[in-house]
Predict the structure.
Amino acid sequence: MPTIKTLLAHATKTLFSHSDSPLLDAEVLLGFVLGKPRTYLRAWCDNTLTDQQLSTFETLIKQRQKGTPIAYLTGTREFWSRDFTVTPDVLIPRPDTELLIELSLDLIPKDKAVNLIDLGTGSGIIAVTLAAERPNALVTAVDASLAALEIAQHNTRRHQLTNVEFYQSDWFTNVPKSLFDLVISNPPYIDSDDEHLQQGDVRFEPKTALIAKDQGLSDIQIIADKARNYLNPAGHLLIEHGYNQAPQVQAIFNALAYDKVQSYQDLSGQPRVTYGRKP
Ligand SMILES: C[S@@+](CC[C@H](N)C(=O)[O-])C[C@H]1O[C@@H](n2cnc3c(N)ncnc32)[C@H](O)[C@@H]1O
């Protein structure tokens, strides 16, 4: 029976031309199969696996070789220091989206009972994180996909939150009429011809979570337009977008007469989120 060390060396070689991080992928998948952290693999590198564990690991490595994202293989991804369940029905949480959280938290006083809405909640990372970080907030989470909403609800239970409400809706269409202090969205914003759709993890993610018409701007346009009817006076709108879309998104916000329109940079220095305040 091969040892952990031998298995990792072999799997790393197998994944070499299929992944940018073959050793890390092999370690994450083996840790997942064993239910152990990666440090265990180093400490117990001469241990062997059961037949069942070996067979599961080999299946996962084959799926990874075909490109299946690690997050879909392990069913989990960390975001803002919490673990979230993910399936192929939802977008895989991105570190870029932590900028939306940072900006939102700056806008929400800790002790105030604010009303906020996350449009296109997917796995629920934004709604759940804000509901957990701001327990006095009432969070509305919306998605057009029922399968995504089920994952978001599961993640809300997983983190034992009771301040999130869910609606299956085409943006605001089925949301009961009310006024929000903050409208947040990471909507689909990729053009259908974008070459990134043929690369890496993105190939396996739901197209409905990624693609929007009009060079990727159609959903941003709809959300920014409709949000004006759902925002309190001086309410805040924050939308994540592509690294090269800030000028167009600012133009959309300005044409709709939002105040204080400004874009913010993500960790890699790209303008990633645009802000506007309802006059
Ligand atoms: C880019 S994903 C964002 C998921 C999650 N908020 C995140 O940041 O990881 C966009 C989400 O918008 C949802 N969506 C797409 N079109 C929609 C629509 N017309 N109305 C509501 N949700 C929509 C998709 O199902 C998907 O879950």
